[in-house]
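In the previous lecture we treated proteins in isolation. Real proteins rarely work alone, and many bind small molecules. This record shows how such a complex is specified: first the sequence, then the SMILES for zinc ion.
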Amino acid sequence: MSRLEDIVSLCKRRGFIFQGSEVYGGMAGTWDYGPLGVELKRKIMNAWWKYFVEDRDDMYGVDAAILMNPRTWVASGHTATFADPLVECKECHKRFRADHLGDFSEKVTREELTSANAKCPNCGKVNWDEVKQFNMLFRTHVGSVSDDSSLAYLRGETAQGIFTNFKNVVDTIYPDMPFGLAQQGKAFRNEISPRDFVFRSREFEQMEIEYFVKPNTWEENFDKLLVDVHDFLENVMMLPVDSIHELDVPEEDRAHYSKRTIDMEFDYPIGREELMGIAYRTDFDLSNIQRESGKNMEYRDKKTNETFVPHVIEPSFGVERLVMAVLTTAYCEDEVDGSSRVVLKLPDNLAPYRFCVSPLLKNKLELMEKAREVYAILRKKYGNVTWDDSGNIGKRYRKQDEIGTPKCVVVDFETLEDDTVTVRDRDTTKQDRVKIIEL
Ligand SMILES: [Zn+2]
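The predicted 3D structure, ligand included, written as tokens:
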């Protein structure tokens, strides 16, 4: 099992992920993606979009604004219940997320912390104040006046941007039931203690689907989506089956809106943690919007003319958690010719670059020209192809291994004779002679 420090170090060293605002000493709970990281992240997001939207007849996309009318968050229950337990140490006055001070539930009390002898991570004492509920919505002000009338929130989830557009979509494209609306985008949570690399951050990216169904069909649709989620994780993200675990979330731990939730957990270097969740949200959201807005959220069945407020199944993915699961799976240290190497065994569909093209020698004009030609051919065919003529071949291989490039193509003197190149495989390090047109 890879260690988190190794992954963090590789991500920084090779330009995948940097600490947010690092040049100014950082900004807690934020992360910036570098040239390699953005390729990986976008490939994951595009693969999700293709699998759940483009390749299906029953899914449609939306892309809503991050700033939404603040009534959205009142209706959804976020202003009242989107909170984490916060506790202050009375000795050193540092604040912590109470349930992270040991093996506690989110409803942990001061008495429980005290009797479990949960020590302050900062000063080591056990002298806790009462546990308070800390609302995680980020507040901001819209326009030139900063008072209560201009208060707005950065969205706490992308889901609400879907629900608030339900009626727009039904009125414009009138899809058959069941159908899903999908959205990818940023969401914000003012986490008390962001931690574990990109796993728990204050600004992150979600990929969510609200799948609208007839109320009495929710169970079969839940089960179908669960199968699709497994298929996506195992056969598109290529995560190992034995690292994925279903957790049927008991009622007391479920979000306020959910009647059934399955968390898909993954064996991360930090332990078994939530990768994504699929929740049955009933008609909670649409009914709330109907009440708060006064607008009718009913759907009229095309055949029977029956009207009803649809129920919803929500598969919800966090992009960064998927990035971390993919990196955890790919990270590997092994030995080649007696020396150790770090290699990212990323699947072809997710690797930032599919090929790296090099000339054997940089100072031979005819090799450079031929290599440029091969590079242009592959780039036209695959798009994500990189060029490297730095250092010696061995160093280039090590670098490409670390960023997960599946194949390195080397142009040498033989290429000039017969249009074949050396193709070196990342995982086996085996080299083959291949005709350029067969790449
Ligand atoms: Zn303390």
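Summary for your notes: The domain at 4-67+141-328 is CATH 3.30.930.10 (BirA Bifunctional Protein; domain 2). The chain has three domains: 4-67+141-328, 83-135, 353-438.
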